[in-house]
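> run fold Ribosomal RNA methyltransferase FtsJ domain-containing protein
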Amino acid sequence: MLGHRSMEVDLVRLQKSEAIQLIKTTLMGWENPQGDEHFKKQRKQADSGKSAALFYRMMKEIGVELHLKTNALTLTNVSPSEVKILTEASGITLSPDQGGHKVFLNSPLSTVLYCDITMFATEFGAEYVPVTHPEHATFSTERPFLSQTFNLIFCHGQVLRTHPRMEYREAYEATRLTFPQLTLAMQCISEGGTFIMLLHKVEAWDTMDLLYRFLQFSDIELFKPIKKHAIRSTFYLVAKQVRPSSEAARLAVQHWKEGWWQATFVRSKLAGLGRKVLTIQADALKKADFVR
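> ok
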């Protein structure tokens, strides 16, 4: 079985060939000021909410392309008579009054829970919430979808600039959002089900770590839209034949639960302690002769 070190060695070897050219091209794009301005305009449009219907149509187009390329929506772990794709859909999303997106799928067969998924403390294995935590009263003991299993699960949640949140969450909010989605998904996915997740920067170490973990308990492939988001770093993980009851899946879920706990209760406290040190240093630097 390949370990993390083997993957590291393989990546180093790849730099001697085509990969190094791909990386150079990518860096040229990211370091281009015109690119910064382009993505700034896109973010402004997304935040305004005026283009919500346009983005909804775009996501449907990406879904069609994803299926044509990966056949991800054809379930293989159920008989044809059991398939009920999108006739019964459940989901969790941040409510619009908390900065979330408007939901355009209005159907009596869909169930949408409007809440902050990062606050389901009991779902993520927390036996208690420290009383000194600034959002102690906001955490929930609810366990959504506890008695349900799903053959197909999408995780598409991203940290939203429009979501007002306390300062302690800023540094680790991406972790606090990614790990709960993974945990909840693996705890309610059917044996042999399909899992699809939006990711960024395939070359990043945390992304490679996630892909490595899924390799241990599913058959994975990566999908990059050509018609939409082609110049962005976004892509999709498509994991089929997921084995949630395997030891590898259990260890992955434990890792994600611990990561959520660290990002929520430990790192935020450490960041607060570090801020005191940095404040003193910053004040002293302002008075230093060599910075005047």
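The chain is about 45% helix and 15% strand.
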